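ok, trying the design again with the full structure, not the truncated one.
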């Protein structure tokens, strides 16, 4: 299959942006112990993504590589084990420009302790930080998928949930973490920060009863 070429300057810019955002996310405590992965679309056929197993607190431009939309490495290196969850979003959503995935304390406890297949966030002012949300009077339902470790099967499951109209902004994997996406890295980080904050708030509220 022939892929449309991406520009080197777009790749360099993406690598810089992803390294910076990764260090910022690590600083929030959402990407411990080399976990998590982040990506940016380069064009219709390529994305820049974190290499497997890199310390996100020390992330540099050299820790970013290129994959095609089937998740295969372009050039040297081993991409993140969860690359197919990123490419599923880019293939499915032409306007998706960035994907951020974290392994936070709140998302882990909420999905492990409560067996529900979704988490609902409702009435929070911070929901307005999400793309397309105009009012706090919003109910956001985030699906929770089982952590099957079969990434291709999980990507297919996300696709089916989207067919059913679920997973508009984000989804969770049980005992694992959060995926969220947006048109660009700024909007995606804002959304991630809002969601991680709200998940931590939700956890506190449930603990307080
Ligand atoms: Zn993960």
């Amino acid at each position: 299959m022939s892929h449309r070429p991406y520009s080197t300057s777009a790749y360099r810019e993406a690598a810089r942006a992803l390294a910076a955002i990764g260090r910022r996310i690590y600083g929030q405590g959402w990407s411990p112990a080399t976990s998590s992965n982040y990506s940016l679309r380069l064009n219709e056929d390529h994305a820049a993504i974190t290499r497997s197993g890199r310390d996100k607190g020390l992330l540099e431009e050299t820790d970013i590589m290129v994959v095609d939309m089937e998740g295969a490495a372009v050039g040297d290196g081993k991409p993140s084990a969860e690359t197919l969850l990123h490419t599923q979003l880019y293939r499915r959503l032409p306007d998706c420009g960035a994907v951020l995935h974290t392994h936070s304390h709140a998302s882990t406890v909420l999905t492990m302790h409560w067996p529900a297949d979704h988490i609902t966030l409702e009435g929070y002012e911070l929901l307005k930080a999400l793309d397309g949300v105009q009012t706090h009077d919003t109910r956001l339902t985030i699906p929770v998928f089982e952590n099957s470790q079969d990434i291709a099967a999980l990507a297919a499951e996300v696709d089916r949930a989207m067919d059913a109209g679920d997973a508009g902004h984000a989804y969770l994997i049980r005992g694992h973490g959060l995926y969220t996406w947006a048109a660009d890295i700024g909007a995606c980080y804002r959304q991630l920060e809002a969601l991680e904050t709200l998940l931590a708030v939700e956890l506190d509220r449930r603990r307080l009863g």
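Keeping the full-length input from now on. The beta strands are 37-41, 46-50, 64-68, 73-74, 98-102, 118-122, 139-145, 170-173, 177-182.
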